[in-house]
Design brief:
Oligomer: heterodimer
Order of helices and strands of chain A: EEEHEEHEHHHHEHEHEEHH
Strand content of chain B: under 5%
Number of strands of chain B: 2
Number of helices of chain A: 10
Number of domains of chain B: 2
Strand order of the largest sheet of chain A: 6-7-8-3-9-10
Largest interface: A-B, 41 and 32 residues
Mean pLDDT of chain A: 91
Helix content of chain A: 25-40%
CATH topology of the largest domain in chain A: Rossmann fold
Largest sheet of chain A: 6 strands, mixed
Order of helices and strands of chain B: HHHHEEHHHHH
Low-confidence stretches of chain A: none
Strand order of the largest sheet of chain B: 1-2
Helix content of chain B: 55-70%
Number of helices of chain B: 9
Largest sheet of chain B: 2 strands, antiparallel
Strand content of chain A: 25-35%
Chain lengths: 234, 257
C-alpha cells in the first residue's frame, strides 16, 4: 500500500533552544491506523502540528505525494485534517454546522455544497439534530465528535488526532472508538489511552525526548513491559 | 453568568423567530433611529413606540420579566444621567400628557425622555436577540454588508466569552478552596492579579491554538459563510408593516391625525 504520510529527518526547535523533535522519520500507509505514544513532552503534539505546517521545522514531510512547504501548505491541509487536544480550540464558530462547513468553504466549495458536506459529517459522527447548536451547548463527548466532523467534512485522506479520548468517560470513549473504527481514512493518533490503541490501531510509534524510541506492532510495543517502563509509560 | 441566560429564548419557535434575521435587524435599527429622533421634551409622543417591542416579545414567547430584568440589569448606566438632568435644565416647559397639561422643569422631561428611550431601546434589542439565533444574526449582518472583521470578532466573543468566564470561575474556586478568605487583603489582591495574568496568558495561548485550528482547515485570510437565511414574502410584509407603523409614530399627520 502506498504511503499517505512520509516523514524524513523532521526536527523542530523552539525559540528558547528546546529541541521538540529531533530527526523523526516515520511513515503511514493509506488507510493505516498508527498510534503515537510517549510520555508528556515527548513531542507528539509538535509532530502533528509540524505535519500540518503549524510550526517551523526542518526535514521532509510528504502528504499524499505533496511535499510540505510554505507554497504547498494549503494543498497539504486539504488532504489531512487535525483535531486538537482541547475541542474548545477546534470549535470556534457560533454553531456546529458552521464549524463543520468552515473547512469546505475554505476549500472553495459553494455554500450549498459546503453545508451539505457539513451536515453529512455531523450526521456521520452521530450529532444529527445538533447542527444549529453552539459548542458551549454540547457535552465533552459531543464536542469531541463535532471536532472530528470539522475535518471529516473536508474529505481528507489522513486524520491527525491529538488525544481524541482525553477527558471522556467510558461510554463516550467507547462511542468515539467505534466511530473512528468505522472510518477508512488513515490515522495518526497521539494518545495515552492504551485501550484505544489496542482497540483499533495496527502499529505504534513511540516518541520520547523528540526522537522515535520504537516502532512496531501494537502487540510488540505494548507487550514489552521493559520498553514501556523505560519511557515512562508503565 | 451562563450562556443559557443570553441564549435562553433565541432557539424557540414562533412567528417572530421564523422571520428572517435581516428583516428583524433592519426593523430594530429603523425603530432605534425613529426612537432617538424625538425631541427630548416630547415624552408623551414616545408612548406608541412601546407597541413594536412589546408585540415582538409577546408573539416571540419571551416573558415580560425576562425583558424587564435586562432593562434593570443595564439601568445603572443610565440612572446617573437621569438623576443629573434636572440639575442642569431648570427652564420651565409645558408638558402634554393627553388631556393633562402642566408646567415642569425641562430637566425632568429630559430625565423621563432618557428613561423611556432607554427602556424601549433595550426592550427592542431584547426582542431581537431573544428571537434570533446569534449565528443567524451574524449571518444577517454579513449579508447586510457589516465589516467581516467585526463579525468575526463578535463570533469569537460569543463563542469564547463563556469559556473564559468558566475558566475564571474554576480558578477562583481553586483559590477559595485554599482559604483565600482568611488571607490578608494584600495577599488576596496579589492572588487576584495573578489570576488575571494567568487568564490573560491562557487566552493568548488559546488564540494561538484557534489560529492554528483555522489554518489547519484551510483558512487563508478570507472569511466565508453559509447562506442559511431565506428572505420570504412574509419578511417583506413584516418590514412594510414596521415602516408604516414607524411612519405613523413619527409623522402622525401622514396618517391623517
Amino acid at each position: 500500500m502506498a504511503d499517505i504520510l512520509d516523514i524524513t529527518d523532521l526536527s523542530v526547535s523552539y525559540a528558547d533552544g528546546t529541541e521538540a523533535l529531533d530527526g523523526v522519520t516515520l511513515s503511514v500507509a493509506a488507510g493505516e491506523r498508527v498510534a503515537l505514544i510517549g510520555p508528556n513532552g515527548a513531542g507528539k503534539t509538535t509532530l502533528l502540528l509540524a505535519i500540518m505546517g503549524g510550526v517551523k521545522s526542518t526535514g521532509r514531510v510528504v502528504v499524499d505525494g505533496i511535499e510540505l512547504s510554505a507554497r504547498t501548505a494549503q494543498e497539504v491541509r486539504s488532504r489531512c485534517g487535525m483535531t486538537f487536544q482541547n475541542p474548545d480550540d477546534q470549535l470556534f464558530m457560533p454553531t456546529l454546522l458552521e464549524d463543520a462547513a468552515f473547512g469546505p468553504l475554505n476549500q472553495g466549495f459553494p455554500p450549498a455544497e459546503a453545508e451539505a458536506r457539513a451536515g453529512a459529517a455531523i450526521e456521520a459522527v452521530g450529532l444529527a439534530g445538533f447542527e444549529h447548536r453552539s459548542a458551549h451547548h454540547a457535552s465533552e463527548g459531543q464536542k469531541r465528535s463535532a471536532s472530528l466532523a470539522t475535518i471529516l467534512s473536508m474529505n481528507v485522506k489522513l486524520l491527525l488526532l491529538d488525544e481524541p479520548g482525553g477527558g471522556l468517560d467510558f461510554r463516550s470513549r467507547r462511542r468515539l472508538t467505534e466511530l473512528l473504527a468505522g472510518r477508512t481514512e488513515a490515522m495518526l493518533m497521539a494518545t495515552h489511552d492504551m485501550d484505544m490503541v489496542r482497540a483499533f490501531c495496527a502499529r505504534v510509534v513511540m516518541l520520547d525526548g523528540g526522537q522515535v524510541a520504537a516502532v512496531g506492532s501494537v502487540a510488540d510495543i505494548l507487550g514489552d513491559a521493559g520498553l514501556l517502563a523505560r519511557h515512562g509509560l508503565a | 453568568m451562563h450562556h443559557r441566560y443570553i441564549d435562553r429564548f433565541a432557539h424557540g419557535d414562533s412567528p417572530v423567530h421564523r422571520l428572517d434575521a435581516r428583516a428583524k435587524l433592519i426593523a430594530v435599527v429603523a425603530y432605534s433611529a425613529v426612537l432617538i429622533s424625538f425631541h427630548r421634551y416630547a415624552v408623551a409622543e414616545l408612548v406608541p413606540l412601546a407597541v413594536m417591542p412589546m408585540a415582538m416579545l409577546w408573539f416571540g414567547g419571551v416573558p415580560a420579566w425576562f425583558a424587564l430584568r435586562r432593562v434593570l440589569l443595564l439601568s445603572p448606566f443610565i440612572l446617573f444621567v437621569c438623576v443629573a438632568s434636572p440639575w442642569y435644565d431648570r427652564a420651565p416647559q409645558m408638558a402634554n400628557f393627553g388631556p393633562w397639561r402642566f408646567e415642569i422643569a425641562g430637566g425632568w422631561l429630559t430625565s423621563a425622555d432618557i428613561a423611556v428611550k432607554f427602556t424601549l431601546g433595550v426592550l427592542a434589542l431584547t426582542a431581537l436577540t431573544s428571537t434570533t439565533r446569534f449565528a443567524w444574526m451574524l449571518e444577517g449582518m454579513r449579508r447586510l454588508g457589516a465589516p467581516t472583521m467585526l463579525l468575526v470578532q463578535l463570533g469569537f466573543l460569543y463563542r469564547y466569552l463563556f469559556v473564559l468566564i468558566d475558566e475564571a470561575m474554576r480558578v477562583r474556586r481553586s483559590r477559595d478552596f485554599r482559604g483565600a478568605a482568611l488571607a490578608p487583603v494584600g495577599r488576596r489582591l496579589s492572588a487576584a492579579g495573578s489570576i488575571i495574568a494567568n487568564l490573560f496568558v491562557r487566552t493568548l495561548e488559546r488564540s494561538e491554538h484557534i489560529s492554528m485550528a483555522m489554518a489547519a482547515r484551510g483558512y487563508a485570510g478570507e472569511w466565508h459563510g453559509l447562506n442559511v437565511l431565506r428572505f420570504r414574502a412574509w419578511d417583506g410584509a413584516f418590514l412594510a408593516g414596521v415602516a408604516l407603523y414607524l411612519a405613523a409614530c413619527r409623522c402622525p399627520w401622514l396618517m391623517g391625525r
